[in-house]
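Q: Could you predict the 3D structure of DUF1853 family protein?
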Amino acid sequence: MQDGADSYQAAFHRRWGHLRRARVRALAWLLDSPDLLDAAAPHWQGRIASTGPVTPEVERWLRDLDFDPARLDAALGPRVYRRLGLYAEKLMAFYFQEQGRLVAHGLQIRANRNDTVGEFDFLLENGPDALEHIEFATKFYLLQGEAGQEFDALVGPNLADSLGAKMRKIFGRQLELGTHPAAQPLLPRPVTSARALVKGWLFYPAGSWPAMSGITAGHCRGFWCALGELDSLGADAFLVLPKLQWLAPFRAAQAAWLLNRAQLHAELEAQFETNPSPVLVAVVRETPGLVEEIERGFIVPNDWRERAEARSAQDDMRNIVW
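A: Sure. Here are the predicted structure tokens for DUF1853 family protein:
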């Protein structure tokens, strides 16, 4: 586990501790967190977008939004969001709209009624005669195997994808959407730039923080461990994070669902009997009137490593076949 004083969480709390509303804190994280991918790395061929540093003007805008979130609440609407990716997209769409840059969000392209070619996450102003296509993703991956296996070794908690597979899809298909014939009648101006904006957290076996080419050195990161390894963490105050609170580090005046290590073990042991999905938890510090995340990590079922290795072997076989 990281030294709490030097963690990303500590830095976030120092800068954004005045923000009280979860939606505004999530938006602040999307704008201010390190981009997951190093835009300068040759591997990405100059096709990685960056949010860049938060300006004083945007910082004031976030502070005012926290005081009066009516515009943000109206943009998100009354729906209850189930998908974290859609929630993050809506927050970014609101930001781009407020900045006067948004031309379209979620524009679907169809070759015909039954054939969807793809979807533009964001089309942004790029000068008077051009558009920029931003493909946006917020991802959470666990390092399984060796860092030398590059991005295929970073796998989703439910083993449904990997960073390598995600980026191959983005580069091979989604960033090419602006050149597709079916897109041309729907574009008010030509797409002259297409880049991927990727935010997220990476999780490593406890105590391991390998450097990886193509990944931003200061990216948001945490640990992962099997349920049977929980005692090795040394912490004794945890929160199970609901999915819509996976973005920004947790901070609240109170949290009724605080668990000690024994309670967390018992709860997850029961849950894993029927649902093998890994669980994201925050290690927290509790002081009078404040519960604050100091670290985070995925707790996985004890057989997760074996299932991850089996999935990796299947993927290797598919690659051989293809």
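Q: Anything worth pointing out?
A: Residues 304-321 form the longest helix (18 residues).
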